């Protein structure tokens, strides 16, 4: 009798801190079950409420991050930043939202009206779908797909389609040129991004994101970033996330100071705001994937900290990763397009390809001291060669500017 009771799954308290993010979903399912609703209706309603919870959380995070980013950049540049709307500028995102809603929506006469409207919507949808498969906690994975990583990259490829649609539907040459430049960057950096993620798949043996997090069990030394192949794969993945999210120094798709917002040139009002919303939601998604694959996901960094809700660890790591993006934006200047493409094809992709045999050797040699002695030189020596010895040959040549006299 005792063993039978122990085998039964004990449901946690409705207001348990670990289950707090799923509280709205559980309340809706409980109400519908008590009303004797069909099981399919309970399942669909629970799924919709879970999706709504994720969207609400990250839309609030989008508004908050827009303020935090402006404050961080202002602090780095010895400025004050937003401080008029509300205490400490806390209502600035609300003011920005009202401004975007009330601005005139101008559509060019030669634009494809339907596609011009559809493009900013399509750039938001893939980011929301990608956020749905990320495991935010031990008991909080909105859509626990077995092929979650494949689904993430599949819906992420729709971003290129929406960018091209925005440039082409605007009916102007400048947005089209900006869209082509944006697509070339996104496609180029997606290759090392996916290749470095494949190293994690090879070692984990699964495409399920919750399972990848579970395999990084234990404390900090058990995370993928703490392996010889994971150090380099994680660094490559991190650099690619900056480029995929269009963050400085890889923010050439917009490049407001030089090319007048690229593919968004002919957009205004709320459509223009949707592009930025999609960009920030995509930033959350790609940073969350980096945390999931290399930083242990919702796993605690040290043993004995399991009493802290797992979703707090995930969002704490996510906040640190996003703050590093802000720090880089405040520190590094924007690169040129030729430097951007050379760096992707001559440095990032060859180094990403090396992570695959490194991960295989790490797994076949037992993941111990011998694995460190074999894999670390395999990754470190080519890295040093590419970064230092052949740097002058791979890097773009310096431009010489001449000015006419008098």
What do these coordinates show?
The protein is an all-alpha fold and 406 residues long. The protein folds into two domains: 19-101, no CATH class; 103-390, no CATH class. The chain has 16 helices and no strands. The longest helix has 38 residues, at 39-76. Residues 1-10 have low confidence and may be disordered.
Outline the low-pLDDT stretches. 1-10
Determine the N-to-C terminus distance.
Answer: 99 Å
Total number of distinct structural domains = 2
- Spell out the helices and strands N to C: HHHHHHHHHHHHHHHH
- The helix count comes to 16
Which term fits the overall shape?
A: globular
Average pLDDT, rounded to a whole number, is: 84
In total, how many beta strands?
0
Which structural class matches the secondary elements?
Answer: mainly alpha
For the biggest sheet, the summary is: none
Q: What oligomeric state is this?
A: single chain
Fraction of residues in β-strands? under 5%
Q: Which terms would index this structure?
A:
406 residues, mainly alpha, 2 domains
Short description:
The protein is mainly α and 406 residues long. 65% of the residues lie in helices and 0% in strands. It folds into two domains: 19-101, no CATH class; 103-390, no CATH class.
Topology:
Layout: H1 2-7, H2 23-34, H3 39-76, H4 92-102, H5 113-131, H6 148-156, H7 158-169, H8 173-204, H9 209-214, H10 228-244, H11 256-259, H12 269-294, H13 310-329, H14 337-364, H15 369-389, H16 391-394
């Amino acid at each position: 009798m005792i063993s039978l009771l122990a085998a039964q799954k004990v449901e946690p308290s409705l207001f348990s801190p670990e289950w707090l993010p799923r509280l709205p979903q559980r309340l809706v399912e409980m109400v519908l079950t008590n009303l004797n609703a069909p099981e399919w209706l309970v399942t669909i309603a629970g799924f919709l409420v879970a999706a709504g919870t994720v969207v609400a959380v990250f839309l609030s995070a989008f508004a908050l991050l827009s303020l935090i980013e402006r404050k961080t950049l202002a602090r780095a540049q010895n400025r004050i930043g937003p401080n008029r709307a509300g205490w400490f500028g806390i209502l600035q995102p609300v003011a920005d939202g009202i401004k975007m809603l009330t601005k005139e929506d101008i559509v060019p006469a030669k634009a494809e009206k339907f596609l011009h409207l559809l493009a900013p919507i399509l750039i938001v949808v893939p980011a929301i779908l990608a956020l749905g498969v990320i495991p935010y906690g031990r008991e909080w994975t909105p859509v626990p797909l077995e092929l979650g990583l494949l689904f993430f990259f599949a819906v992420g490829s729709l971003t290129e389609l929406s960018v091209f649609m925005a440039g082409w539907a605007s009916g102007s040459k400048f947005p089209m040129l900006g869209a082509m430049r944006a697509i070339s960057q996104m496609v180029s950096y997606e290759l090392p991004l996916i290749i470095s993620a494949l190293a994690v798949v090879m070692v984990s043996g699964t495409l399920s994101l919750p399972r990848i997090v579970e395999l990084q069990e234990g404390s900090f030394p058990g995370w993928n970033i703490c392996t010889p192949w994971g150090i380099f794969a994680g660094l490559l993945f991190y650099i690619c996330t900056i480029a995929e999210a269009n963050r400085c120094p890889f923010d050439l798709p917009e490049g407001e100071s030089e090319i007048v917002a690229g593919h968004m040139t002919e957009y205004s009002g709320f459509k223009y705001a949707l592009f930025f919303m999609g960009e920030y939601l995509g930033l959350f998604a790609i940073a969350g994937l980096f945390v999931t694959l290399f930083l242990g996901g919702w796993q605690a960094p040290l043993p004995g900290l399991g009493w802290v809700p797992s979703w707090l660890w995930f969002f704490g790591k996510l906040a640190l990763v996003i703050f590093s993006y802000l720090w880089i934006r405040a520190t590094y200047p924007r690169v040129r397009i030729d430097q951007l493409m050379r760096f992707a094809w001559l440095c990032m992709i060859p180094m990403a390809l090396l992570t695959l045999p490194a991960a295989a050797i790490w797994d076949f040699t037992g993941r111990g001291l011998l694995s460190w002695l074999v894999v670390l030189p395999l990754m470190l020596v080519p890295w040093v060669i590419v970064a230092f010895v052949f740097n002058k040959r791979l890097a773009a040549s310096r431009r010489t500017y001449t000015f006419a006299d008098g």
